[in-house]
Amino acid sequence: MAFPEPKPRPPELPQKRLKTLDCGQGAVRAVRFNVDGNYCLTCGSDKTLKLWNPLRGTLLRTYSGHGYEVLDAAGSFDNSSLCSGGGDKAVVLWDVASGQVVRKFRGHAGKVNTVQFNEEATVILSGSIDSSIRCWDCRSRRPEPVQTLDEARDGVSSVKVSDHEVLAGSVDGRMRRYDLRMGQLFSDYVGSPITCTCFSRDGQCTLVSSLDSTLRLLDKDTGELLGEYKGHKNQEYKLDCCLSERDTHVVSCSEDGKVFFWDLVEGVLALALPVGCGVVQSLAYHPTEPCLLTAMGGSIQCWREEAYEAEDGAG
């Protein structure tokens, strides 16, 4: 007689506040985990980018070189490089260890809202208020981008990259997916200005948030609407959304001081997590664990599941 397989543990939501870090860099415009979730980046309105160990609450390095506020950042797959973009229209490639600027790419005609590395960290993709996505070769000395994607009719608010796709959200109300293998462009019309887009962890779906205070889950290949998620407030700010580490929940910032979690399949609200008084400007979800970072005002908050016990020195 065979024993039944043990049931997988139900997903736990990060609702226990472990840490609040005052970042000391003006308003935190974005918070981002690195590739393995051990470190995070914060983008400041004071023109700096900072690298932290969020569980320990320790500042590891400050990166200075932008001429205006930093709006987004990302880490490379091997943790050796960072890229960032901001209000100075520049895209900056940094060496993590030395804190030095390796390259500064100029060409955008307006502020850079979003930056991403490709998988090999050989190319930086940047999306700007100037309605373009530009692709910069990290290894070349050429000052101009190797490719410009200019299909958007208004500012580009969000860019995400998979091994062969670029997913972009625009204020023109369209989410565009560039399939680089097939050389094809797919477009889904949402109708309201898009604030954030992302792939599901399994790569089958895309999640899009827009200024009608609605998140939509679409089948990546067909564009079919799989779910709508409401209850949060997003009418004027560019706010982050994502999926939890096991694709079980849809997660969004809100302008009313909370982070909202919905059950992905059922579409029902599972948790409205109170962060504070103000707009939850940004969030980041750990790649493999129920750990959430939120940004509000000048600080970030680190959240874990209720059962989590901090290791000595990390709490």
From TrEMBL:
Give an example GO cellular component term for this record.
catalytic step 2 spliceosome
The residue intervals holding the WD repeats read 21-62, 63-104, 105-146
Q: Name one GO biological process term.
A: mRNA splicing, via spliceosome
Question: Gene3D superfamilies of this UniProt entry?
Answer: YVTN repeat-like/Quinoprotein amine dehydrogenase
A Pfam family annotated for this UniProt entry: WD40
- Kindly state which keywords UniProt assigns to this record, in alphabetical order: Cytoplasm, Repeat, WD repeat
Subcellular location(s): the record lists: Cytoplasm
**InterPro entries found in the cross-reference section:** WD40/YVTN_repeat-like_dom_sf, WD40_PAC1, WD40_repeat_CS, WD40_repeat_dom_sf, WD40_rpt, WD_repeat_MORG1
User: Is Repeat included in the keywords of this UniProt record?
Assistant: yes
May I ask which residue range the UniProt record assigns to the signal sequence? Answer: none
Does this UniProt record's set of keywords contain Hydrolase? no
The organism's superkingdom is given as Eukaryota
State whether it acts alone or in a complex, and with which partners, per the record.
Answer: Interacts with EGLN3/PHD3. Interacts with ERK signaling proteins MAP2K1/MEK1, MAP2K2/MEK2, LAMTOR3, ARAF/Raf-1, MAPK1/ERK2 and MAPK3/ERK1. Identified in the spliceosome C complex. Interacts with PARD6B and CRB3. Interacts strongly with GTP-bound RRAGA but not with inactive GDP-bound. Interacts with p62/SQSTM1.
- Report the sequence similarity comment from the record: Belongs to the WD repeat MORG1 family.
Q: What is this protein called?
A: WD repeat domain-containing protein 83
